[in-house]
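Run log // design_07
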């Protein structure tokens, strides 16, 4: 319930009534003492009341007219318009602030939609163009359909598949149709399997990575550190796999030659919780960019110039979604060297007493 304001519309309307009554009463007293005809007093009181009412009504209806114009502009796709008078200390000021906040949100959503279409179009165009060039060369007889050519075509096809799979994950995220199937499992064999898959992906297909880019990194050592050895976690294994795989992929891409990526698991502060870290030896993330690393299509300054990995910038966004789906938290933690990303999962919900 909105707290009482001395400048609320109810107060203004009440003041209008009181002032009108006082004016009419005062003119009647003047008429009785000066023998002025009642009809003149009535005319004067009506005119005075109308002038005061007109003044107050203009102050109330002018913001509503402005809100109507802004709402009509928003309905036609113009999200840049804002309502004036958001600083008023009454209900209309509150309404103006709410409309402006709504316009800000709609403008942000529209900007994100445009960026999404532009980025997805760009990401799809690159592998499609490369695949088309390979196939055209084979059809035109410029190159033979030898295993090397087919591997090049396969690489671009798999890149397309990974990108489409990532976009489907984002679609399920936005629609909220991904259920959480949490269970308790041992951390060491689980993470060992994830690291083994990451190592096989790099060693088994040179030129391919687990992300959407075509990055070759089979020179980075993956190290697993779990303590105590019998540590268990309560989570959705498939969703957690997305988190760890994307964090490893991101860490490997930014590691130096012959670098080391460490996946560390420890019990969390709360009973049954899990603290998971992925640490690399790369250039790290500047403090000014840490709040943006989990945004969609954000590649960071270290990944945007020469030598960038060509990824979509979606992996960390999906990792954040999967962690938050568990009710956990993911963040960039302080590290003396490289980048250290910390994931905390709350564990199994406590049964009510």
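design_07 sequence
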């Amino acid at each position: 319930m909105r707290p009482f304001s001395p400048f609320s519309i109810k107060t203004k309307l009440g003041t209008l009534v009181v002032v009108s009554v006082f004016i009419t009463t005062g003119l009647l007293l003047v008429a009785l003492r000066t023998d002025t005809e009642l009809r003149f007093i009535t005319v004067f009181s009506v005119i005075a009341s109308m002038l005061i009412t007109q003044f107050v009504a203009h102050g109330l209806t002018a913001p509503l007219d402005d809100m109507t114009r802004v709402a009509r502009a928003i309905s036609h796709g113009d999200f840049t318009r804002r309502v004036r008078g958001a600083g008023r200390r009454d209900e209309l000021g509150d309404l103006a602030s709410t409309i402006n906040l709504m316009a800000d949100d709609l403008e942000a959503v529209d900007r994100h939609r445009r960026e999404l279409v532009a980025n997805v179009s760009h990401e799809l165009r690159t592998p499609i163009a490369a695949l088309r060039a390979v196939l055209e060369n084979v059809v035109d007889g410029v190159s033979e359909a030898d295993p090397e050519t087919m591997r090049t075509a396969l690489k671009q096809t798999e890149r397309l598949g990974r990108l489409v799979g990532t976009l489907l994950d984002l679609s399920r995220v936005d629609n909220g149709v991904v259920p959480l199937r949490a269970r308790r499992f041992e951390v060491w064999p689980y993470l060992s399997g994830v690291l083994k898959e990451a190592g096989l992906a790099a060693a088994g297909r040179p030129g391919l990575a687990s992300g959407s880019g075509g990055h070759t990194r089979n020179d980075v050592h993956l190290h697993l550190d779990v303590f105590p050895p019998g540590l268990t976690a309560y989570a959705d294994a498939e969703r957690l796999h997305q988190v760890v795989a994307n964090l490893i992929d991101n860490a490997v891409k930014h590691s130096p030659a012959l670098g080391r990526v460490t996946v560390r698991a420890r019990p969390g502060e709360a009973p049954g919780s899990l603290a998971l870290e992925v640490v690399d030896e790369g250039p790290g993330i500047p403090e000014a960019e840490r709040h943006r690393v989990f945004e969609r299509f954000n590649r960071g300054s270290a990944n945007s110039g020469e030598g960038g990995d060509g990824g979509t910038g979606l992996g960390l966004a999906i990792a954040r979604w999967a962690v938050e789906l568990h009710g956990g938290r993911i963040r960039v933690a302080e590290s003396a060297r490289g980048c250290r990303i910390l994931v905390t999962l709350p564990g199994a919900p406590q049964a009510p007493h």
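Residues 247 and 278 are 7 Å apart (CA to CA).
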